Amino acid sequence: MSTSNSNRIDATFAALKASNRKALIPFITAGDPSLDSTLPTMHALAIAGADVIELGVPFSDPMADGPVIQRSSERALAKGMSLRKVLAIVTEFRKTNSKTPVVLMGYANPIEAIGQAKFVDAAAAAGVDGVLVVDYPPEEADDFSALLQGKGLAPIFLLAPTSTPERIAHVARLARGYVYYVSLRGVTGAGHLDVDEVAGKVAAIKAAVPVPVGVGFGIRDGATAKRIGAFADAVVIGSALVQTMFDAPADQVANAGGAWLGEVRKAMDA
């Protein structure tokens, strides 16, 4: 499995491009709203039209995340979710889904606790395809990116409205899979998305980076997803989905998540 993982991401984007469709990338926090809801929800999202699944590794101080994701992280930690358990969930997912890419999104601390090299080995063995570490700035991520690429995993980076040309150039050199453009200043889940401004920023980033550009933060429904998909390669949705799952009855979490995402996919493809 040493070199094939990130090819799942590349293959997914190539197939979408060939059919003139855009990637839909849902984010869920592993272990929320319950430990045993995550695996069935991943399968439900894949069936509903998720092209890539971003699986959040809960952390006690998720500084880049808004209140919805922060609370989901706190709930998951309180239930005992850990990085090792997240990898075990991916291993289980891979037993019956070898096609849908899985990207881990989280913070440096849990990775450092295991050790970067051990983490990368374990992530590759589990069937992870890419890793986005919020607090590894690209300027300090050369070694970690090399470890990931050595195992065929994609180092994925965030870019923001405030990103300098120097940072964009650094990301362009390291990034594989896709880059994730944070369309709002501040934290995830905030409102007020200026679609025209985002379109201009995405065009500039696309000109600078060699991988697809996904847009997230502030996308709450199918209509907004469709507008973003008009110019971005991928649409990332987190807070609205996490809230939908939390609000669902305990035995309906996966169904509720899948049904909600299916409506977004339908709107994007309309």
Notes on the structure:
This protein has 270 residues and is α/β, with parallel strands linked by helices. It has a single domain (5-269), classed as Alpha-Beta Barrel (TIM Barrel). It has helices spanning 5-18, 38-48, 67-78, 83-96, 108-114, 116-126, 142-150, 165-174, 195-208, 222-229, 239-247, 253-269; strands at residues 23-29, 53-56, 102-106, 130-133, 154-155, 158-159, 179-182, 213-216, 234-237. Strands 5-4-3-2-1-9-8-7-6 form a nine-stranded parallel sheet. Helix 7 (142-150) links the parallel strand 4 and strand 5. The radius of gyration is 17 Å and the shape is globular.
Brief description of this entry?
With 270 residues, this protein is an alpha/beta fold. Helix content is 50%, strand content 13%.
Main features:
single chain, alpha/beta, TIM Barrel, globular, 50% helix, 270 residues, 9-stranded parallel beta sheet
Helix percent band = 40-55%
- Indicate the CATH architecture: Alpha-Beta Barrel
For the secondary structure, the number of strands is 9
Number of domains: 1
Structural class: alpha/beta
CATH class: Alpha Beta
Q: The CATH topology, please?
A: TIM Barrel
Largest sheet, spatial ordering of strands: 5-4-3-2-1-9-8-7-6
Mean pLDDT: 92
Helix count from the secondary structure assignment = 12
Rg over CA atoms, rounded to whole Å, is 17 Å
Distance between the termini: 37 Å
